[in-house]
Amino acid sequence: MQKAQVGSVTVVALVDNVQAYPASAVYPNAGDALQEFARYLDANGAVALNFAAFLVADGDRRILVDTGWGPEYQGKLLEELSAAGVRPDEVDTVVFTHLHGDHTGWNIDRATGRPLFARARYLVPRADWDHYAAQQPPPDSFVRDVRPLEAAGCLELIEGERRLTDAVTTVPTPGHTPGHTSVAIMSGGERSFILGDVVLSPIDAERPELENSFDWNHEMARATRLRVMDRLEAERALVGASHLPPPGLGRFVRAEGRRVWQALGG
Ligand SMILES: [Zn+2]
Known about the structure:
alpha/beta, seven-stranded mixed beta sheet, Metallo-beta-lactamase, Chain A, 7 helices, binds zinc ion, 20% helix
């Protein structure tokens, strides 16, 4: 858990889990290009991927961006939320960057089958809902964690930009999935951007053109990744990134002529 202030808004990184993935599996076409990134890899060539969600506290609003891998992955999201001083029933809005299973895992209370964030509206990008609902069969995580929200009456499909508070707005950033969405925060002249899976590892900051195994549309994802990182670097925005090293807050900065990820406080 790590808190940061953006004007009058508090952004909290909540680490659900961390898992190591072979870099050659994340970037199957990278080949020798990975050798120059040994500093980001362990002795086995694996890159540690964070699985983070983010809490955005603005006035009396409590907005949760994504819900992690969930209990089946020994997720710590609820403990992290508690450490941040927030109960699940205080969350008024859950908004998803996209509908992959590592971002929807804590939606449903496994004991009751009811939404775990009991008082929240769940905002789902419509293009992701349409995409995964149409698959035959739909992904298991969609059936378990996302579809029940409709019958529970708390689901709202969103498109385009959606203003959540005066300071917090959703922004479409497609490519990783059809409806991939980020959350932009602007308060007191300061900016923050929760970018979901637009960027997966620190390697992307330096080699944004590398294809990864998880993007739905490589060309669109690459264009979005470049555009978003250019903007965030220029704005010196505080970035929340699901899979960047825990807890997942930092900035894109220039160092020796190249763009690098700089963890907050690092
Ligand atoms: Zn993800």
